[in-house]
TrEMBL record, chains A, B:
One of its GO terms (molecular function) is serine racemase activity. It comes from Roseobacter litoralis (strain ATCC 49566 / DSM 6996 / JCM 21268 / NBRC 15278 / OCh 149). This is Serine racemase. Pfam families: PALP. Its cofactor is pyridoxal 5'-phosphate. Belongs to the serine/threonine dehydratase family. The keyword Hydrolase does not apply.
Amino acid sequence: MLDSMIGSDLTIDDVRAAHDRIKPYIHETPILTSSYFNALTGAELFFKCENFQKAGAFKVRGASNAVFGLSDEMAEKGVATHSSGNHALSLSYAAGRRGIPCHVVMPRTAPEAKKAAVRGYGGIITECEPSTTSREAVFAEVQAATGAEFVHPYNDPRVIAGQATCSLEMLSQVENMDAVIAPIGGGGMISGTCLTLSNLAPKIEIYAAEPDQADDAARSFRAGHIIADDAPVTVADGLKVPLKENTWHFVSSFVTDVLTASEQEIIDAMKLTWERMKIVIEPSCAVPMATILRNPEVFRGKRVGVVITGGNVDLDKLPWTLG
Amino acid sequence: MLDSMIGSDLTIDDVRAAHDRIKPYIHETPILTSSYFNALTGAELFFKCENFQKAGAFKVRGASNAVFGLSDEMAEKGVATHSSGNHALSLSYAAGRRGIPCHVVMPRTAPEAKKAAVRGYGGIITECEPSTTSREAVFAEVQAATGAEFVHPYNDPRVIAGQATCSLEMLSQVENMDAVIAPIGGGGMISGTCLTLSNLAPKIEIYAAEPDQADDAARSFRAGHIIADDAPVTVADGLKVPLKENTWHFVSSFVTDVLTASEQEIIDAMKLTWERMKIVIEPSCAVPMATILRNPEVFRGKRVGVVITGGNVDLDKLPWTLG
């Protein structure tokens, strides 16, 4: 059973099963290209637009795989998580499609807009104090009261198998890729990418991109063990969380390199992508482009898949308009 | 010869010839759909994404048709215009692809960013004073000195035939459309839409959308003759120009209705499109969605093609962040 597996048990069959399971609930998102960015980088870039995905981010793949993989008995009690970002939206969306409850524990201090978005997808919010102790205590209460199944945002093999469907689609959409690059926070997308590519196309290089100011994955990669930072500060707010054992397995086994970029490089790459490609992307998804621009020699002449992970951004607080 | 034609002489063969001529230089832009907007409007909407077009707007279709339709002899002297918006960018792009000069007369007071964008596409700028008198005088000098061919932004049959290729693509991309809606300023896109649909699919309704504050097309449509406003003020800055005889021919003959929306409705529709569809669109392209939301009964239950005309917007001055 997937939910008692560890990451290293996952096989390509789990990815294929995930894709069959979630297909009715997700988009096969398009690939966009940009002659401007190709000229700028000297590479051929293929942007996998998960910002156009249901609930606005790739996370709906993993969340849907977890939700629709539950037995009817387990599903009845619903699912639960304590993310306040895209995973909470995605899990609420997937639970809504299955018609089961989704419980989300969020700090009472979280922005109203985020709470409204979770409720908009049908999530049931229980508020906690803005501390780890309170969050864990409240989450334990919610789980005890409801019996809901915990779906971790990234350290769950069911979630990793779901995220892996993104690169499965890319392989059928883009021929002869030399490399794939994706942002890394907790490592769910990168682990899924490793799972698919190590099985189906092991020659394709896998680059993980993260902010200089939240470079725990880069330091972990070089040290050979997980290094977790306490509350890093970066505009790429989806990338602040640390690796965990299931994602570390993939990062340490299959990633080619972890590249980093500064806050200004991330903001510039984000704005340039909006300006030239006319797509709305989150700061986190600008990190791969920022690292490509910082390290052109790594990518020049290559056909590179770039995962645009999501497009949920507060249009009233764009980073280039903030002092 | 197309350049001595008037609008009413245009046939569907001119549109097909235009499409063959410009295909190597433009994108066949994708159609996006949104379950959110379908639920909100009760219609099935098919967004033709010309914001992803070369130079960021549909205007590259008409400009390319004009540029690549010139004889070698005429082309040698280049092309000229006095637009400072998307037409100037598009004409510069097309001229660059043919390797001929493009002269653009712009007020010296135009924003530096706009001048830089035109230069970025290879346009040669001659500055005038910010008055019609100066613009006309300077433009006449440039034409006399260079012999460049004037390409009007919309009142030129070559341009109308080029814009008509957009709905030609839509017909092959979307089955059984009941209606098409596009913004109307000078009427180039709407005229092209009329040209294609009146010939190939005359049952499809054609709606033109414009701001309440620049509703000259709506008033012209109801009056039965061209009414031109002097310097209307609207956030939809692509839609301030008046109809001219060649576009009036199509508007008066084939348009089903001209619908309007308020400034706030346009800004709200623009922001909502960015938030939900994750695409960058200009204020002008939000006008159709704003009019659909104002007149849901007109569109409910219909399959509607919505032309997203362009995505060139100043990210430092988004209308919802301005007081």
